[in-house]
Amino acid sequence: MRVNQPGAEYGRSTQAIHAGYDRDPATGALAVPIYQTSTFVFSSVAEGAKRFAGEESGYIYSRLGNPTVHVLEQKVAALEKAEAALAFASGMAAVSAVLLGLVRTGDYILCSKGLYGCTYGLLRLLRERFGVDYSLCHMKDEQEVIHSLQPNTRIIYVETPVNPTMELVDLRMIAKVGKERGIYTVVDNTFMSPYLQRPIELGCDLVIHSATKYIGGHGDVVAGIAAGPQKLMDEIRMTTQKDMGGILAPMDAYLLIRGLKTLGVRMDRHCENAQKVAEFLCAHPKVAQVFYPGLPGFPQYELAKKQMDGFGGCLSFELKGGLDAGIRMMNRLSLCKRAVSLGDVDTLIQHPASMTHSIVPAEERRKMGITDGLIRLSVGIEDVEDLIGDLEQALTFA
Prior knowledge:
This is L-methionine gamma-lyase. Its EC number is 4.4.1.11, 4.4.1.2. With 398 residues, the chain is an alpha/beta fold. It is built from 15 helices and twelve strands. The longest helix is centred in the C-terminal third of the chain and has 20 residues, at 263-282.
């Protein structure tokens, strides 16, 4: 395939559409071909030997690289301002490959509080079975982060915004702390997408996405992405990706490539709708608090403006009536879909206390920032008046 890599002079939407691909040289096809093949034929024994020795570029076996997947990787690398990217079978495959690719027995990982549950589970596994320790930190200021470091710290791992409170981590500060001490800084950028936030531009080392969310955007594919320096990406590709095998299928890569073509218009609409929904909820008498970075009253509103190009499509709000109010409201919704995940064109809503975290004791939930009346809303791109209408009628039962 002919490769097109728009330079820095192109905007984000242009890069999302054009980076990594120009046209198919054999047919002139505008759409990226789906190379649904497991293996690739060598023209000679010598060619095969050179490819295995790394002396010649080219494809060998789709677990080691695939042309369709490579286009996706180039697009995300361009959007994240990274030297290279790797695509995985899920967001957790990306997290696992990056962490296992960077740490050694005896290392320490400092993480932001409020981690995704499966990432937290992986960290516990690393501690119990492989001798890699970790701790959680709010990361609200530089001194708090510095005081939480250990001499053997290998990684500072951050999710921002934090789910579900939307608390932000100052990425420039984290990057500074890491660089001064030779510590890798890894950021899960799923909630923002590279359209709204680019941690590498702010000085961080690596970025991870659950591409299932905003990168795909249509709720029809599960995938992950990691992006960062070429050397690190090459090491991860040839170790934890190749040997653990969490690769992305060509068809799934194609769906993500197609999703990226509309990333800009989708993210603009997600942000616009979320802002209006947040403002509506702020004025509602049954809502105690709204957590959304785009609200001037949000504690980190100024930080959000400094490191994000928009405030995102996710928000949370607290119902005054607690657990029972949350259940009643959720059961009365008709347009908003009761479902986990986020970043879909459809609006998705969940009540963690009665759904995803119902088996967790109430006190433990509260320590995680999940109160009984907390609702998390991933605002879609429907007509916002319809979304507000659905929420308004459901809130009468809260």
